[in-house]
Write a structure and sequence with these properties.
With 604 residues, the protein is of the alpha+beta class. The protein has two domains: 193 residues, Penicillin-binding protein 2a (Domain 2), CATH 3.90.1310.10; 339 residues, Beta-lactamase (3-Layer(aba) Sandwich), CATH 3.40.710. It has 21 helices and 20 strands. Strands 2, 3, 4, 5, 10 and 16 form a six-stranded mixed beta sheet that branches. A five-stranded antiparallel beta sheet has the order 12-11-20-19-18, with helices on both faces. A three-stranded antiparallel beta sheet has the order 1-8-9. β13 and β14 form a beta hairpin. α13 crosses α15 and α14 packs parallel to α19. The mean pLDDT is 90.
Length: 604
C-alpha cells in the first residue's frame, strides 16, 4: 500500500510540476497566444523621400494537435493550393514534429504570406478548419526599383541565427544584407503578445482576461540615409549593361551620396513568396548581381594611385613640386621597362598628374624606397605602407556595410617570402603606378578622393544620416588625419585640375563641366583576364568640395573612355540637377547607351 501510494504521488508530481503537456493542452483549448509583430522602421533618403515602407500579409498558423478531418478541396480552393501541395505540407509538418522543430501543442506556420485578398477569402471559411488560424505581419515594400545593394533584404531567420539571438522564433524575419542587416536591431522593433479566448472549434471569442496579459508591439525606429535617391537612380542608369561600381561621398561628412554596384537588381524580387524562385536565379547569374562590388570587390587602383605616391614623396622629402623627370615613352632600367604614352617631357609634379606619366612615378617611387634615412629597403617599404594605412588602405574603413572588404597592401614580409629577402625598389616598381600586389575597393578609392578634397583628412564613409530619437555612431563623426602636411596638397590638387582643364595631352578633358571646377585623375588598371579596367576619381568644386567620387568600369579600357565621363555626369547631376550643354548631353547619351556586356556600341 505504501509503495502504491508513493507511485501515485510521484505520478501526480510529474503531471503537475515536471510534465507541462497537459497544462498546455488545457490552455490551448481555451486561449491562444498570438504574437503581435511590429512594423519595421521606415527608410528615407537624405531629402526625405520614402525608400522602404511596409505592406500587410498574413500567415496561416496551425496547432497540429487540434486538427480534425476537414474538406481538403474547400481548403485548397480557399488558399489556391493543389491537393499535392497540401499533402506535401502535411508530410513536412509531420517530419518537423518528429524532429522536434515544431510542437503539436504550439502554433507554427503552415502557409506564409497570404495577400489581403487571399486572407479575406480564407477568413470567411476559417471556422470549418479546426486547428488553423491566421496571424498578421508585415513585409517590406520598396518604393523604387533601385538601391538593392544599399538597402539589402529581409529573409526568414536561419537555424544558426536562431541559436545566436533568443529574441527570434522559428519563422521570424531578419535583415540579411545592407542596412536591413546593419540596423536590424533599430528597424525590427519589439514583438508583442495577445491572448485570445477560443471555443472548441478554434474560433476566437474575444480577449482573454480583458487583455490584461497582452503586451503591445513597438514599431521599429525610422532611419534616414545619406543616400540621394535621384543621384542613385541616375548612376544606375549610367552603369546599365556594364560591370563595376560608383561611390560618391560628401567630403566634409563622409556621408555616402550614392553607392552603385552593377549589374543591379530590383529589391522587390526578394520579398514575399516570389523570393524563393527569384533568389536562385540571381545567385546563378554569372554576372553576380548579388555581389556588392562597391564594398566587396578589390581592384588595382591604377594611375589614380599616383596622387598617393606623390603625397608620400612630398612628406618624406624625396620629392619637391618642382622636381622634373624625363619620359621617353616609358621607364627603362636594367632590362626592365614600364611603357608610357606620348606627352611633353620633362614634366614637374603637377604636370606628371596632368599627363599621368608612368616614368615620373617609377623614378619617384624608387626615391621613396631608396631613401637614405632608412637602413634597409624593408624599413622604407614598411614606412610607405604605414602611410597607406593612414590613408584608409589595407584595412576595412569601418563603414556601416558589414561585408566590407579590406583590399590588400603588401608589407616587406610579403616580398621577403617571395624573393627570399633578395629584392629592391626595381623589383616592386609596378606599385609606383597602382599595379602589382596592391588592391583597393571602390569605397576606398572614393575615400581617397575625399581625403585629397579635404587636404589631408577624412571621416569614415557611412550611409546612415539619422536614427529616430537616437544619435548615430560616434565613429562616423571622428576625423582621421593622414599626417601629410597641408602645403603638400596644393601641387596634387593643381595637377588634378590640369588633368581636366589643361591643354593637349591632359588625360581627363572629357570630364569638363561648364561652370564647375572639377579636379580628377584617370586610371587604367591592367587586367590579366581581359580588357583593362577604366577608372576615374574626382571631386568638385575645387575650393569648396561638395562631392568626391570614384568610378570603376570593368573591362572598360582607358580611364577617359568610361570612368571620367560617367563620374563627371554624376557630379554635374548632383551639383546642378541637370546636364547643361548639347555636348554634355551627347556624352550622356553615349554613356547611357553603351553596352560592355553584350559588346554593343563599345567605345574605343
Amino acid at each position: 500500500m505504501v509503495s502504491l501510494g508513493l507511485i501515485f504521488i510521484g505520478k501526480l508530481f510529474i503531471l503537475q510540476v515536471y510534465d507541462t503537456s497537459y497544462s498546455i493542452s488545457a490552455e490551448s483549448n481555451t486561449r491562444r497566444k498570438v504574437t503581435q509583430y511590429p512594423s519595421r522602421g521606415l527608410v528615407y533618403d537624405r531629402n526625405g523621400k520614402l525608400l522602404v515602407s511596409n505592406q500587410a500579409v498574413y500567415d496561416v498558423m496551425v496547432v497540429p494537435r487540434d486538427i480534425v478531418s476537414f474538406d481538403s478541396i474547400d481548403f485548397c480552393e480557399s488558399l489556391d493550393l493543389s491537393i499535392e501541395q497540401l499533402r506535401e505540407r502535411f508530410v513536412q509538418m509531420r517530419a518537423d514534429i518528429k524532429s522536434r522543430k515544431i510542437s503539436t501543442y504550439k502554433p507554427s506556420v503552415f502557409m506564409k504570406q497570404l495577400s489581403a485578398e487571399q486572407y479575406g477569402s480564407f477568413q470567411e471559411k476559417l471556422y470549418k478548419f479546426k486547428g488553423f488560424f491566421v496571424q498578421g505581419r508585415t513585409l517590406r515594400k520598396y518604393e523604387y526599383p533601385s538601391s538593392a545593394h544599399v538597402l539589402g533584404y529581409v529573409s526568414e531567420i536561419s537555424e544558426s541565427q536562431l541559436k545566436k539571438d533568443k529574441y527570434y522564433s522559428q519563422g521570424d524575419y531578419v535583415g540579411v544584407s545592407g542596412i536591413e542587416q546593419t540596423y536590424e536591431e533599430k528597424l525590427r522593433g519589439k514583438k508583442g503578445v495577445k491572448y485570445m479566448l477560443v471555443d472548441v472549434h478554434g474560433r476566437e471569442k474575444g480577449a482573454f482576461s480583458g487583455g490584461r496579459h497582452d503586451t503591445a508591439a513597438i514599431a521599429g525606429k525610422n532611419i534616414t540615409l545619406s543616400l540621394d535617391i535621384e543621384l542613385q537612380q541616375y548612376g544606375e542608369q549610367l552603369m546599365k549593361n556594364k560591370v563595376g561600381s560608383i561611390v560618391a561621398l560628401e567630403p566634409s561628412t563622409g556621408e555616402i551620396l550614392s553607392l552603385i554596384s552593377a549589374p543591379n537588381y530590383d529589391p522587390s524580387l526578394l520579398i514575399g513568396r516570389d523570393r524563393s524562385k527569384n533568389f536562385p536565379v540571381l545567385l546563378a547569374d554569372t554576372l553576380k548581381p548579388l555581389l556588392n562590388r562597391a564594398v566587396q570587390s578589390s581592384y588595382p587602383p591604377g594611375s589614380t594611385f599616383k596622387t598617393i605616391n606623390a603625397l608620400i614623396g612630398l612628406q618624406e622629402g624625396t620629392l619637391k613640386p618642382y622636381t622634373t623627370h624625363e619620359c621617353f615613352m616609358g621607364y627603362f632600367a636594367r632590362g626592365l621597362s614600364v611603357g608610357c604614352h606620348l606627352h611633353d617631357s620633362p614634366l614637374n609634379l603637377s604636370q606628371s598628374i596632368q599627363h599621368s606619366c608612368n616614368a615620373y612615378y617609377c623614378y619617384e617611387f624608387r626615391d621613396i624606397l631608396d631613401n637614405n634615412k632608412y637602413d634597409r629597403i624593408q624599413d622604407a617599404f614598411d614606412a610607405w605602407k604605414d602611410y597607406l594605412v593612414r590613408f584608409g588602405f589595407g584595412y576595412r574603413l569601418g563603414s556601416d556595410f558589414r561585408n566590407e572588404s579590406r583590399g590588400f597592401v603588401p608589407n616587406s614580409g610579403t616580398f621577403d617570402k617571395i624573393y627570399k629577402k633578395s629584392w629592391n625598389s626595381l623589383t616592386v616598381i609596378s606599385l609606383s603606378i597602382g599595379q602589382g600586389e596592391l588592391l583597393t575597393t571602390p569605397l576606398q578609392m572614393a575615400n581617397m578622393s575625399a581625403m585629397i578634397a579635404n587636404r589631408g583628412h577624412f571621416l569614415t564613409p557611412h550611409i546612415i544620416k539619422d536614427i529616430e530619437d537616437e544619435m548615430i555612431d560616434d565613429r562616423f563623426n571622428e576625423i582621421h588625419e593622414t599626417e601629410i602636411d597641408l602645403q603638400h596638397f596644393a601641387p596634387i590638387v593643381n595637377g588634378m585640375e590640369m588633368a581636366v582643364w589643361g591643354g593637349a595631352g591632359s588625360t581627363a578633358r572629357i570630364a569638363q563641366i561648364p561652370g564647375i571646377t572639377i579636379c580628377g585623375k584617370t586610371g587604367t588598371a591592367q587586367n590579366p583576364h581581359g580588357d583593362d579596367h577604366s577608372i576615374f576619381m574626382a571631386f568638385a568644386p575645387k575650393d569648396d568640395p561638395q562631392i568626391a567620387i570614384a568610378v570603376y568600369v570593368e573591362n572598360g579600357g582607358f580611364g577617359a573612355t568610361w570612368g571620367a565621363p560617367i563620374a563627371s555626369l554624376m557630379v554635374e547631376k548632383y551639383l546642378t540637377d541637370t546636364i547643361s550643354t548639347p555636348y554634355r548631353k551627347w556624352i550622356e547619351k553615349r554613356m547611357l547607351e553603351g553596352d560592355l556586356i553584350n559588346g554593343e556600341q563599345k567605345l574605343q
